[in-house]
Design a protein that fits this description.
The structure is a single chain. With about 270 residues, the protein is of the alpha/beta class. Helix 1 (about 5-15) packs across helix 3 (about 95-100) and helix 4 crosses helix 7. The protein is about 30% helix and about 25% strand. A hairpin with a 2-residue loop joins strand 3 (about 65-70) and strand 4. The protein has a single domain, classed as 3-Layer(aba) Sandwich (Rossmann fold). The chain has 7 helices and 9 strands, in the order H-E-E-E-E-H-H-E-E-H-E-H-E-H-E-H.
């Protein structure tokens, strides 16, 4: 995916609407229903936008939505792209790069993840404070286009400290328990083995999943502020808690937690 292709996609959207979003939302598993609460300005199917890959993951729609939520002008993908779907890393981050070119300076991301901490239970909300990238590719690999960002972006503050503080304050105000944790990204699509969960724990991770990190890398490359949350879909530590889990069970847990996470994200946006 090139800068010129991004511009072509942006210009197509500009012909459809002059909406100028402030904030991007990546509505992954656990937050996709929030799209229904947006005061819609424009909905564009992924397939209508030039060069836009199509999402194929279960429960993920394939729409770009522009509108207002809690008084904020936002742009969101109702669904996200994953490396395990066969997309290149450049394709995975194409939606976020496009949303930035449309005007978004902040991104809020969500996902469903395995909980690799003895205090994490299915349905818990976790504020992502850092990550460990174990994916086999990187969205910045290859020639760098300085119009998007620097060759070697710093990742020492990948997750914005002020936004984290705001999220914690809003969680307390709402009476919600909000854990904090480090997210470890693996390529998927298979769930991890017990030995891999043990590895994640020993590396310092409390969450494990198959998304989010490529988008965070691209966001920081472009100078965007990042706030990210996980819904704990299944308990993976200690290893005695591991049991077989289906996609349907993961989706059910995420849907049950969605009202809490949606309320928290809306409260943060309003502030």
């Amino acid at each position: 995916m090139t800068y010129d292709q991004l511009l072509e996609a942006r210009d197509f959207i500009r012909r459809e609407t002059d909406w100028q979003p402030e904030t991007a939302l990546i509505l992954g598993t656990g937050l996709s229903g929030l799209a229904a609460e947006i005061e819609v300005e424009k909905i564009l199917p992924f397939g209508k936008i030039p060069h836009f890959p199509r999402a194929t993951a279960p429960s993920h729609k394939s729409e770009l939505v522009l509108g207002t939520l809690q008084g904020r002008k936002i742009v969101t993908t109702a669904g996200r792209l994953h490396y395990y779907e066969g997309h290149s890393m450049q394709e995975v981050v194409f939606p976020l790069r496009l949303m930035h070119l449309l005007g978004a300076q902040t991104v809020v991301l969500s996902n469903a993840a395995g909980g690799v901490h003895e205090d994490f239970n299915p349905g818990d909300l976790v504020l992502i404070t850092d990550h460990i990238n174990l994916m086999p590719d990187n969205p910045l690999r290859g020639p760098n286009d300085e119009r998007l960002g620097p060759r070697f972006p710093d990742m020492s503050d990948a997750y914005d400290a002020d936004l984290q503080k705001l999220a914690e304050e809003k969680a307390r105000w709402l009476g919600m328990k909000l854990h904090k944790g480090v997210y470890v990204a693996l390529p998927g699509p298979n769930l991890e083995t017990p030995a891999e969960y043990e590895m994640v724990h020993r590396l310092g991770g409390q969450l494990v999943g198959m998304s989010t990190v490529p988008e965070v890398i691209a966001a920081r490359h472009m100078g965007m502020k990042v706030l990210a949350f996980s819904v704990v879909a299944n308990a993976c530590y200690p290893l005695s808690r591991i049991r077989p889990v289906s996609v349907e069970e993961v989706l059910a847990v995420a849907r049950a937690a969605e009202p809490k996470l949606a309320a928290l994200v809306k409260s943060v946006l309003e502030a």
